[in-house]
Amino acid sequence: MCRPENKPTEWLIWSHEHTAWWAPNECGYRTKRAEAGRYSFARAKEIVHKANTCLDIPWEAMVEDKDIYE
């Protein structure tokens, strides 16, 4: 399904280290995707970049929240 033009994409952050999603407001972790925090592309990119600095294998990954436009 195509995303409506006026809806911004939100991003979730998966932590391989904690085997969970970043919580809202960057406060802890959640195992359920529905309870995960939603972040702008720019903020998610900053978080993931900072978390993965100097690592051989990334611990954190950005995931597009496609459910918001289904």
What would a concise description of this structure say?
Helices cover 17% and strands 21% of the residues.
Descriptive key words:
70 residues, alpha+beta, 4-stranded antiparallel β-sheet, globular
Can you offer a commentary on this structure?
The chain has 70 residues and is an alpha+beta fold. Helix content is 17%, strand content 21%. It is built from one helix and four strands. It has a four-stranded antiparallel β-sheet with strand order 3-2-1-4, covered by helices on one side. A hairpin with a 4-residue loop joins strand 1 and strand 2.
Q: What is the element layout, followed by pairings?
A:
Layout: E1 11-15, E2 20-22, E3 29-30, H1 41-52, E4 60-64
Antiparallel strand pairs: 1-2, 1-4, 2-3
Extract low-pLDDT stretches.
none
Rg (C-alpha, Å): 12 Å
* Helical/strand content category: alpha+beta
Total number of strands: 4
**Helix segment tally:** 1
Biggest sheet features: 4 strands, antiparallel
Give the mean pLDDT.
Answer: 87
Instruction: Give the topology string: H per helix, E per strand.
Output: EEEHE
- Lateral strand order in the biggest sheet: 3-2-1-4
Distance between the termini: 7 Å
Percent of residues in beta strands?
Answer: 15-25%
Which shape, going by the Cα principal axes? globular
Helical coverage, percent range: 10-25%
Report the oligomer: single chain
